[in-house]
Write a structure and sequence with these properties.
Blueprint (H helix, E strand, L loop, with lengths): L1 E7 L7 E9 L4 E6 L6 E9 L6 E6 L6 E2 L4 H4 E5 L3 E6 L8 E9 L4 E10 L8 E6 L11 E10 L9 E8 L7 E7 L4 E6 L2 E11 L6 E9 L2 E4 L3 E3 L7
Parallel strand pairs: 2-10
Antiparallel strand pairs: 1-2, 3-8, 4-5, 4-9, 5-6, 7-8, 9-10, 11-12, 12-16, 13-14, 13-17, 15-16, 17-18, 17-19
Main location: membrane
Keywords: Cell membrane, Disulfide bond, Glycoprotein, Immunity, Membrane, Signal
InterPro entries: Ig-like_dom, Ig-like_dom_sf, Ig-like_fold, Ig_sub, Ig_V-set, TCR_complex_component
Length: 245
Amino acid sequence: MVMLWIILLLLHQGYTLVPVKTVQLGEPANITCALPSGVSIKGVHWYKQSVGDTLKLIVSLVKTATPEYGQEIFKSRFQANYDKKFSNLTILKAVQDDEGIYHCGIIGWINPEWTGTYLLVKGNNETASNYTVVQWPTVLNPLRSGNSMTLQCSVYSDSDKMCPRDYNVFWFRAGSDQLHPSIIYTDGNRHSESEIISDSQERCLYRFSKNVSSSDAGTYYCAVATCGEILFGNGTKLDIEGIWC
């Protein structure tokens, strides 16, 4: 299993570097969560979040009690345990739908702690080289607070499938006031338009629109997660009049 690193925003407080693991389709995947030392742990909860979806409980682990699974089918697909230092979640045989963020919720006597890992499931035939990501525009004229902006992200594919569903699209913003970029929107694989460019290539178009405020200055990126890799657009810089990032 290959370990990659990209910057993602968890649903929890603050920004953090989230490890991204890549697993081959059909292989087992093991996700590890380090437990804090010197803290009394009441239990560990594992959740999965697909792009554009809410958290789904996989399993709850409470000391000597039998693991409680969120769905009956999870018993045959997942194994989980924890000791004084680590909690491990194992997917016995990865399928494409297993791709997403896996959250480890550590329940202590004071404040709960969260960590996350993004799992990319790599198919047997597709490669990231089949895709090209082009973002437009690269620069916007300075906008006033309340103005509307629209960004476009085009995903060009050499696949013979019209807008294949084996990738997910994210939108990030990086501002000078942030240590790391943050996810601001997820398109999943819901495209706005599709267009056949030639006999061997087609394009899927994704749009992101919003009314900007003074806190929205920064550089915006679209990112495509596919085939065990993350492909980034070239970025769009946004300045708000009176605000310079």
